[in-house]
Amino acid sequence: MPPHAGHLQLIRAAVEQVDALTLLVSSLPHEPIPGAMRAAWMRELVGALSPMARVVHVHGDNPAQPADDPRFWEIWLGILRQVMPVGPDLVFTGEAYGDELARRLGARHVRIDRGTATIPISATMIRGDPLAHWDLIPGPVRPWFVKRVVVIGSESTGKTMLARDLAAHFGTVWVPEFARAYLDAKLAHRNQTLDASDIEPIARGQAAAEDAGARAANRVLFLDTNLLSTELYARHYYRACPDWIGRAATERRADLYLLTDIDVPWIADTQRDHPHMRAHMHALFIDSLERRGFPYVTISGTFGDRFQLAVKATRELVGSR
Fold first, then answer.
1. Strand, helix or coil at 317?
2. How far is it, in rounded angstroms, from Cα 91 to Cα 93?
3. pLDDT tens digits for range 209-245
4. Among residues 170, 169, 166, 159, which one has the least CA distance to residue 179?
């Protein structure tokens, strides 16, 4: 919790020695990482290692250690027999409990060093400081831990340039505003502007682009706006926004919002149409961020000043890495 390079070392060792492998992912209620998500990660990871391996998610308020319940072995043998009515021949673990587990299943225990010598890591260490152990976190797991920084604000306040420059500075990726590309395509193919029917596909596209970016990010992901902006502009232009977008904007809360101030000149382009509304929209962004309790820093001054302020705020979030 989470899966890491040491777990993968254990699984690779097992895959090399068997014809069929069952991997158990056990979870308890109220754990910091949902068990269903951990099982999904493992299915992706194990599927890449072996097509004959299966992942079974065992969930419920089951005892985690023999000392937790005098019926520990009875409970777990019952669970395991539901998963695997006969067998197994081999039990692979990286723990001492594997001896007793294998004995009770009538199997042989193969204890694999889960990397403590060659991969000095534990899930506890990763949860304590995931960015420090980034290279030992598998790709599908990284989006859970990646720090998300959103550059957000009114039109023509340098958001795209700032997100791009920050990503280059921190050696990571950034996600452009989906709505701009969506509108460009609509203008090019149909010569039409946006209307209320476009809000949901824009929101879905923005969310999907963010999720893809999180997989490619190196510790921190920079977003040129997010669903909070989608919601605000929908309400501004069309006086309404689907409820699910507002909920998603809250659920997909970023770790930091860089709110670009309006103290820079307006630069016109084909998608900007409200230079006189920047102060109004800026106030709406502040109100929405504060009502939701989202952490934000106002980025003001020259473009050089803005970059330095944004770097400083991001450093405070991710450290010196």
1. helix
2. 7
3. 999 999 999 999 999 999 999 999 999 889 999 999 9
4. 159
